What we know:
By secondary structure, the protein is an alpha/beta fold.
Amino acid sequence: MSAVLGVSVGTGFVRMVQLPDPGRLGAPVRAERRSIAVDTWAPEELAAEAVGIVLADAAESGSTVRVSIAYSDEAQAAALDAALRRQGVTNFRLVPEHTAVFERLIQDERLATRRTLALYDLGSSGLTVSLVDRSTGSVVASERSTRLRGSDLNADDLNTDDLRTLPLEISGPPAIALIAESADLVGELADQSGSVPDVVVLLGGGTHAPEVRSVLQQRSAIPIVVAEAPEFTAATGAALLAAPVGKPTAKPRRPSRTTRPRSVSRLQVAGAVVAGVALVAIAVIGFGLGYGRAYFGPEAVASTEEPAQPAVDSAPR
């Protein structure tokens, strides 16, 4: 029996997606999704320990697991490589996060006819907006901000009554205004790059919040697509990019409680979480209201497409 394990490593959570090894291209089925809160841990150490537990369990049962981990930058890739090897894990693949995300999205039927995707990735630590050429998978332009983080926002400040005035005027609690202003970043990136997006794809746990979706829908003149289990997009893509299992050079070992102030329990790793749990703490950024009205703005007509089935993918190193 074999499986593939994909991992994404954020500042707030380590996300894990395990799938039966597809053996060929095909839609992922029976996905098991898990989240582990980072707390005071180094995210890379937490991810490595969790992977070590999964592989140790698989080795004891005679199973094999192909592992792929999405990284945000070269520094994180190096930290993950070192942490995994300290756990005795040597057979794994590291892939750029944007590659994992793209691999997860390319076979979504709702995006099949789209040429340029605007990825609106709203996580607990900030917002990243990227323009991606679907035909090549290349990132045309990208902007990241942590000016306002999800942990700084109170969901109680968001009230659907405030949304009624947004098509005419940005008003209401600061969070609502910041969500509305963040929409203009798509237009700004389009202006800078000369690439006009055909669709906005919502990613990240923050996009579970209905207020985020409502505000963006009201300000969007182009379709909005919400990825399925949006906080697990990168982890699912990573699973689908997992390298073939080779003969391990070292047996993964179970983490020792003497090496860390707190170890990841098997219950934490084995316990699947509900993929649709909303991260109501939303991370957004406010930008000027200049360019972007052709794509987002008070005069825009909203267009929304609901989530469909997961996409599938393949794999570079």
